Amino acid sequence: MSPATRDWDASSYHRLSVPHEEWARSILDRLPLSGAETVLDAGCGSGRVTGLLIERLPDGQVIAVDGSASMIEKVEEVLRPGDRALLADLTEIELEEEVDKVFSSAVFHWVLDHELLFRRMRAALRPGGRFAAQCGGAGNIARLRQVSEGVMASEPFAPYFEGFAEPWNYAGAEETEARLRAADFDEVRCWLQPWTIEPPQPAEFIGTVCLGHQLDRLPDELRDPFVAAVLEAEPELVRLDYVRLNIEAVAA
Fold first, then answer.
1. pLDDT tens digits for 171-181?
2. What is the pTM of this model?
């Protein structure tokens, strides 16, 4: 199962993804909307963020796309009759008609091939359509990644991580701008933004939101001990140093 198509625990994700709502509001605040557009929510997740988008489109339409079946089932709870939910990998998505805007929050770092991703986003947009997104960027959760790698290499966990590759693509601003221009976007602007969070339930948050791919490789009886070992190795991980990659562009 690739990072783009991994199924998630949608109910837990929905309950824990409070920071994602704050990140999404920051994107929506810089995405001009008249309220009547058709907007692609690229990687809609459980619908917590999709609901914010719907609030700003009283006369518009949301096309909510995600590669996780449980997320699509959950997002349908917030969609209106005129909105649509589509189960699809973002690198394979094909829409019947071009949309006015593309919005995405906290998703693109799970897609390893950004060149292909941006080509698909461009194909979804009408010429002149605006693209606004944010995801994990270069340096994101660096300390958590370092600590978790050490725990993965220790017993009794090590045998389960043979051949494991990081599921993230935490890209930098300059390389992302180059990829967007190559995908036929204009007015490209990308920047990195530090954003520290303190989740109220750090063990559950880290296990569900950050280390789900690692836990997928472990038997049930080792999953909680793995997260506990990560937090024991670095108690300061109750405070997570995120780095957000902000993306703005217009379809040429």
1. 999 999 999 99
2. 0.90
